[in-house]
Design goal:
By secondary structure, the chain is an alpha+beta fold. It has three domains: about 80 residues, 2,3-Dihydroxybiphenyl 1,2-Dioxygenase, domain 1; about 70 residues, 2,3-Dihydroxybiphenyl 1,2-Dioxygenase, domain 1; about 120 residues, Nuclear Transport Factor 2, Chain: A (Roll). The protein is about 35% helix and about 30% strand. The protein has a six-stranded mixed sheet with strand order 10-9-14-13-12-11. Strands 1-4-3-2 form a four-stranded mixed sheet, with helices on one face. Strands 5-8-7-6 form a four-stranded mixed sheet, covered by helices on one side. β9 and β10 form a beta hairpin. α6 packs antiparallel against α7 and α7 packs across α8.
Length: about 325
């Protein structure tokens, strides 16, 4: 039995080592592939439409996107058509690039005298696809699309559990029959709560470079936000705290430090409640405030009357549209 135990232990050790090697080389190959290919992300998504003006009108007038560049009509030679599986008798193509807000652009193709299939692919057909648009309030977005005569395919579904818990989604149709999607997760998704190493990109977490470039700091407004923030964290009434948070925090505000993360006023409120329970009588006092563009840096101390600087640190606020979008908390190490 002793020999068998050692043998089994050796086999297990070898298996673990082999598994580690597989993970190592798999990660190395992925990194090497990305470095070699030089690909860093999605620039645009292409979609064919039967009528260019109809497509542009839908994306601009209904969804609020902005048409930018146009190519064509471009005549296509026989070699190009053969290589790209285009009917030999189909005419020239016109291409319109549309700025779809934060994220990839949409490239709209329209072929003159199109001899291709006029039947839209079914959802389970090879090649079928859809584009998903993020919204912070899916119910309001559905209401708006319905007012524009857009066909909604069912009702928004809230995922109750799993990696996408907290995500709501619903499909809708364009006037030419393409399936598209609305998706929303203002409080994040389930998998994010476990602090994964890899996070999926989301337009809700992106900040418009143009908006930031044009945004200038208002010291009086920013000082008021910081003062209100610490009043909230010093308050002991949870209901009043939530109401005040809604005044200065964005709906999907994120708070991050080395030991915790919270999304939305509800999770932040629970964290502040725990602080008061753990350290009764402690208060935050602001020591100094600095700001430029849409960033505020506030230095603070926290403690009791007997020891008002028991803990010191700094909060970094990211402001968008007059509200705190992100808050990074830095707590000084104890000396």
């Amino acid at each position: 039995m002793k020999t068998n135990y050692k043998s089994n232990q050796k086999i297990q050790t070898s298996a673990v080592a082999l598994l580690n090697l597989v993970f190592f080389f798999s990660a190395s190959e992925k990194a090497e592939a990305q470095n070699t290919a030089g690909i860093i992300g999605i620039d645009h998504v292409g979609i064919n439409v039967p009528d260019l003006n109809q497509g542009i009108t839908f994306f601009s007038d209904v969804l609020g996107f902005k048409p930018v560049t146009q190519l064509g009509p471009i005549p296509l030679d026989a070699g190009w058509k053969e290589a790209n599986h285009i009917n030999p008798t189909t005419g020239a193509v016109t291409i319109k690039m549309i700025n779809a807000g934060t994220g990839a652009s949409i490239e709209v193709f329209s072929y003159a005298d199109n001899k291709g299939s006029k039947v839209h692919p079914n959802s389970d057909d090879i090649g079928a696809s859809h584009i998903a648009f993020y919204t912070s309030d899916i119910k309001e977005s559905v209401k708006y699309l319905k007012s524009k005569g857009v066909k909604i395919l069912g009702e928004p579904y809230l995922t109750p559990s799993g990696d996408t818990a907290g995500e709501s989604w619903v499909y809708f149709e364009t006037p030419w029959g393409s399936k598209m999607e609305l998706v929303s997760y203002p409080d994040g998704k389930g998998y994010e709560k476990t602090n994964p190493k890899q996070m999926l990109w989301s337009p809700k977490n992106e900040t418009s470079a143009v908006r930031l470039k044009n945004q200038t700091a208002d010291p009086l407004q920013y000082n008021a936000i910081v003062e209100r923030h610490f009043e909230i964290w010093n308050g002991t009434d949870g209901a009043k705290r939530i109401a005040a948070m809604n005044d200065i925090y964005a709906r999907d505000i994120e708070v991050l430090d080395n030991h915790f993360s919270a999304v939305g006023s509800g999770q932040i409120n629970e964290f502040v409640d725990n602080l008061h329970e753990k350290f009764p009588g402690y208060k935050f006092i602001v020591k100094s405030i600095e700001s430029h563009h849409n960033i505020i840096r506030a230095y603070w101390q926290n403690g009791s009357e007997a020891n008002p600087a028991a803990v010191t640190g700094m909060d970094l606020f990211v402001i968008e549209n007059g509200k705190v979008q992100k808050l990074y908390v830095f707590v000084d190490s104890k000396k």
